[in-house]
Automatic annotation (TrEMBL):
Residues 65-96, 265-332, 444-471 are annotated as: Disordered. The keyword tRNA processing applies. GO terms for cellular component: nucleus; tRNA (m1A) methyltransferase complex. Substrate-binding subunit of tRNA (adenine-N1-)-methyltransferase, which catalyzes the formation of N1-methyladenine at position 58 (m1A58) in initiator methionyl-tRNA. PANTHER family: TRANSLATION INITIATION FACTOR EIF3-RELATED, TRNA (ADENINE(58)-N(1))-METHYLTRANSFERASE NON-CATALYTIC SUBUNIT TRM6. Belongs to the TRM6/GCD10 family. It is found in: Nucleus. This is tRNA (adenine(58)-N(1))-methyltransferase non-catalytic subunit TRM6.
Length: 471
């Protein structure tokens, strides 16, 4: 029974969880915090009442911003025959068919009418609703529900949902990476539990989070990052447990070449420490003459201001203590950063990674050629780019350099379909492109041998046979 309770708890919303709010095709990632006002699609509410409910529950937004689970729709009354027209040819959209004005609708809202009741009022006051076909009536009701129903669905974050959220709201942050392309990347790179994967990601951490989710907390992920530190906004939205972060390592991309050359020193401490110590010694030397002058007879007349001087000295001491505390914190952070760098370097030095995933706004060619050296033979790699020209250059470079097989440059095509009775067809609006993927497999390269050594290593019986025929 206890095991069943633990299993059920992971499907329930808890305080502090990261969730995704959904209304229609709009998504928004959020953390559940007590008494925190959330604004979503021009409406504000609190998420406190959602705690202890199951994920994927649809809530109605009540007055005061409270959430209440939506009751299941009673379909018994809707099974009756609806009055509908045969075609829409005689309907003219002149804006005069609806008797209710905007002020009337606002008055209905103030009276406390819910979305379904307002939609019913709109239907009853529409002069052309009964003349529309059954399909047109369904379309009208769906459109009005989207506008007037105050509902929100709370979902558990996943790779697919977050990819759809980013692609719909801020595609530029993820280099216009579409969710079907991300799924292909995970498949082509053979991401699985227990593997060691290198990830170079400038897509707000979405690709990194997708790799971590697929690995399930087992194995190791090394994030290669540009700049001063890694960006993991997308990883936080997944809401991973603490043990997922134990397998995550970070390594700056600027240290790849020194690591390959064997010149990277991970034991080095803060290079500015010696300069700071010399500056501190110089300040102490400057303060020594001032201390000697304080004992001179000229300053004895200032004994009346001894109380003020004592207060100033106390302030100076407090400032010095604050500076020392900040310096200590900085020292601890630098030591932690050095340890993380050394741990990631130790993983990379063995050069036995099981996969490489690159999705970046930078030109992928130099990054790919540098990171391929950390992969074991017969391991997959995949590179994403919004444009095909950089990947064509990578393809040409890999063919010239060797060490890879099964190189493929592909683009993804996705189209949504409306599936309804007697009106199934492709959706009119579709995504123009999902980017391009370059994938392949590493192989061990044979070093070329000089011609003289090949001749010397020729089998002895063959040489004897040749000499016999000549004689």
């Amino acid at each position: 029974m206890a095991d069943n309770g633990d299993e059920d708890s992971q499907y329930k919303i808890k305080e502090g969880d990261y969730v995704v709010l959904k209304r229609g095709d709009i998504y928004k990632a959020m953390q559940i915090q007590p008494r925190k006002k959330v604004i979503f699609e021009k409406q504000w509410f609190f998420l406190d009442n959602a705690v202890d409910h199951l994920y994927s529950t649809t809530f109605e937004i009540m007055s005061g911003g409270t959430l209440q689970p939506k009751k299941p729709k009673d379909t018994a009354g809707s099974n009756g025959a609806k009055e509908a027209g045969t075609d829409n040819r005689n309907i003219v959209d002149d804006g005069k068919s609806q008797k209710l004005t905007r002020d009337d609708i606002e008055t209905l809202k103030e009276q406390g009418l819910k979305g379904q009741e307002i939609i019913q009022q709109l239907i009853e006051n529409s002069a052309t609703f009964r003349d529309k076909t059954e399909y047109a009536q369904d379309k009208y009701i769906k459109k009005k529900k989207k506008k007037y129903e105050n509902t929100v669905t709370i979902l558990k974050p996943s790779c697919r949902i977050l990819a759809m959220m980013y692609h719909g709201r801020e595609p530029g942050k993820i280099c216009h990476l579409r969710y079907d392309t991300l799924a292909q990347m995970l498949t082509l790179a053979n991401i699985h539990a227990g593997s060691k994967v290198l990830v170079f990601d400038t897509c707000a951490g979405l690709v990194l989070g997708a790799v971590m989710e697929r690995m399930g907390g087992y194995g190791s992920v090394i994030q290669m990052y540009p700049g001063g530190g890694p960006v993991r906004a997308g990883v936080e939205s997944f809401g991973f447990p603490a043990h997922f972060h134990d397998m995550l390592h970070e390594f700056p991309i600027c240290h790849v070449n020194p690591l390959l050359a064997g010149t990277l020193d991970t034991t080095a401490k803060d290079p500015n420490a010696d300069e700071k110590q010399s500056n501190k010694a110089a300040e102490e030397e400057q303060n020594q003459p001032e201390a000697e002058q304080q004992g001179s007879p000229e300053e004895r007349s200032m004994e009346t201001n001894a109380g003020d001087d004592a207060g100033q000295e106390q302030e100076k001491k407090e400032k010095e203590k604050r500076k020392e505390a900040k310096a200590q914190e900085k020292k601890v952070k630098l030591e932690e950063k050095r340890k993380k760098l050394a741990a990631a370097a130790a993983l990379l030095e063995s050069r036995n990674a099981d996969g490489l995933v690159i999705a970046s706004r930078f030109h992928p060619c130099p990054v790919l050629m540098g990171l391929l050296k950390f992969l074991s033979p017969s391991r997959p790699f995949v590179v994403y780019s919004q444009y095909k020209e950089p990947l064509i250059e990578c393809y040409t470079k890999l063919r010239e350099h060797g060490g890879t097989v099964n190189l493929r440059l592909t683009d993804t095509w996705l189209r949504h379909y409306q599936v309804l009775p007697n009106r199934t067809h492709p959706v009119l609006l579709m995504s123009g492109g999902g980017g391009y993927l370059l994938s392949g497999t590493t192989v061990a390269m044979d070093r070329p041998k000089p011609a003289g050594s090949q001749r010397a290593e020729e089998p002895a019986p063959k040489r004897l046979k040749l000499t016999d025929t000549e004689g």
